[in-house]
Specification:
alpha/beta; 2 domains; five-stranded mixed beta sheet; four-stranded mixed beta sheet; 11 strands; globular; kinase; Asp/Glu/Uridylate_kinase; nucleotide-binding; Aspartate/glutamate/uridylate kinase domain-containing protein; transferase
């Protein structure tokens, strides 16, 4: 479902209009709507790119799903670019009421010096940085966000909400919400 064709628009790159009724109707009919980043009309710039990460945050705020999945080209959020030697996959990030986030698993020393997020020059939507910022807004709603690599067994499990100790990816959650999957609970408790 193209945001442009659905009439979504922005004002200064912020969502100005987003009719979620078509998406709600598709869900009610038993379909799984697939949305993506797209060029949309912008009331001040003429046109802009609306990131899929911003779209899913907006939908999460209106539809309040049990969880949200971001599929990427890497297994999740790392403490530095994943191509760097010794890059560590951050398994769990907690977000407090103010939107500040902290790494829960693994415990890292000197986190402020070790976590470095980069954005590829060709990525007009903000890359992993935008994903983390939008995921933090979603997590504040009490909705877990799973970030993992597309096309893997891990992505299939995330889409089903089957998060266990063997799952590889990053969970971003509210600091108020305990994550049972990494402490021996079942994925259905998420």
């Amino acid at each position: 479902m193209s945001p442009f064709a659905c009439g979504w628009s922005t004002q200064g790159r912020n969502i100005a209009f987003a009719d979620v009724s078509q998406i709600s109707s598709a869900l009610a009919a038993g379909f799984v709507p697939v949305l993506h980043g797209d060029a949309v009309l912008d009331h001040s710039q003429g046109c802009t790119i609306l990131s899929g990460d911003v779209i899913i945050r907006h939908l999460a705020q209106h539809l309040l799903p049990e969880y949200v999945v971001f599929l990427t080209d890497v297994l999740g959020v790392y403490d530095r670019p994943p191509t760097h030697q010794n890059a560590k996959l951050l398994r769990e990030i907690a977000v407090d009421e103010e939107g500040n986030w902290s790494i829960v698993n693994p415990k890292l020393e000197h986190v402020e010096k070790q976590v470095k997020i980069t954005v590829a020059s060709h990525d007009t939507t903000g890359g992993m940085e935008t994903k983390i910022l939008e995921a933090a807004v979603i997590a504040k709603l009490g909705i877990n966000v799973y970030i993992t690599k597309a096309g893997t067994e891990h992505s299939l499990r995330a889409l089903k909400g089957e998060i266990t100790d063997e799952w590889l990816g990053t969970v971003i959650r509210s600091s108020k919400k305990q994550l049972h999957a990494f402490t021996g609970g079942s994925g259905s408790e998420l």
